[in-house]
Amino acid sequence: QVQLVESGGGLVQPGGSLRLFCAASGSIFSINTMGWYRQAPGKQRELVAAITSGGATNYADSVKGRFSISRDNAKNTVTLQMNSLKPEDTAVYYCNADGRPGRWSSLIDYWGQGTQVTVSS
Q1: CA distance 28 to 11
Q2: What percent of the chain has pLDDT over 90?
């Protein structure tokens, strides 16, 4: 089994910055894409940013130019640097990874427990 543990959420003023960190541990053979999703109250969960094992990235239009995603393949970690935060960025942020616990295992979608990000003055 694979576990994703997030850290780094909190309260920040508009215009401020936060860094979210996620580490995958457990029985891991390989991890393909890692990413961050968020869910605000009353809204559906949405993709924020994702990065493949080869380093290709994908961002939601609403965060382009403000957020940056990176990963360390050797350590199975992914980081989301969030700058110029806005109140509408307030949400629970979830780490996501799709990977295989064993060489012959099917691809499985893993989720972290979520970390709250609140942008408010």
Answers
A1: 33
A2: 87
